Known about the structure:
Elements: H1 5-19, E1 25-30, E2 38-44, E3 47-53, H2 61-74, E4 83-87, E5 90-94, H3 103-117, E6 130-132, E7 135-137, H4 145-158, H5 165-181, E8 188-190, E9 199-201, E10 206-208, E11 214-216, H6 219-225, H7 233-242, H8 249-268, H9 273-283
Antiparallel strand pairs: 1-2, 2-3, 3-5, 4-5, 6-7, 8-11, 9-10
Helix pairs in contact: 3-7, 4-5, 4-8, 5-9, 6-8, 8-9
The chain binds adenosine-5'-diphosphate (ADP).
Amino acid sequence: MILPNAIEKEIKSILISKKGDGITIMDMQPVSGGCINNATKIITNYGNFFLKWNINASEKMFDTEVKGLELLRKSKTIYIPQLIAYDHNYLMMEFIEKEPPSNILWEEFGRDLSELHKVSNINFGLDHNNFIGSLPQDNKQQPKWTDFFINQRIIPQLSLCDFSSDIIRDFDKVFLKIDALFPDEPSSLLHGDLWNGNFVFLKNKTALIDPAVYFGSREMDIAMSKLFGGFHDQFYSSYNENYPLSEGWQERIDICNLYPLLVHVNLFGGGYYSQVKTILNRYI
Ligand code: ADP
């Protein structure tokens, strides 16, 4: 998709206001890999910038993404690309150059994420709602993780799915078992959408991008990391060394992943339905 003129004009004037009249845009190249928005690499004589844009974006989508990035940045635990500017329809950041993975990068990433997860809040949720992909994410705060998970994560997604009453009944049965499954742990500041496309290895650190931040069970980030094949073993071992996961965490991965799977059903269609059904059958 071609960058709309109005956004291009605004970007140019922002870059001039920040870098001076001497800045020239030399090229704009599409960036692939995103699921929701369009992305462009802006090449200038003052370095490269990353622009993601969406003329149909919900009013607060980029605004809440920026809030999430700033919360993660404030934790001082993991690198977050510098913000340049944003509005309803776009978000412009420092362009980060991807580097190939290495054992050391995986190891540091695991440790950094465990440090992020040590940042806690009295309640589960957040002081504002945000988005998961392009879908609204309800963060109404609750003192108990399993209540939050059922009421703010699963039920809102279920209400968007076109599931049969049998499946809804199966969810009700699983809800009755969830409380006893999870450990009593403090909330953790989460990335909230930690799949392989939402972190980038740089020369000597890892950057997080595209979060859906909230305070939740840290097992949500760990489970999401395993949804599409999993991260490198080194990541999990350094995470566990620094902030050991509670016993039985492997057993809860599928329950946690009901949330991203329902999101995938709602965003990308029924292909993920069978995974949801398999998980339900395991737990009822
Ligand atoms: P979407 O919101 O559509 O999911 P993403 O935020 O995931 O979009 O970004 C789309 C693509 O752009 C991904 O491939 C990602 O690696 C890349 N990307 C995201 N942020 C940056 C950045 N600051 N610099 C360079 N590439 C980036």
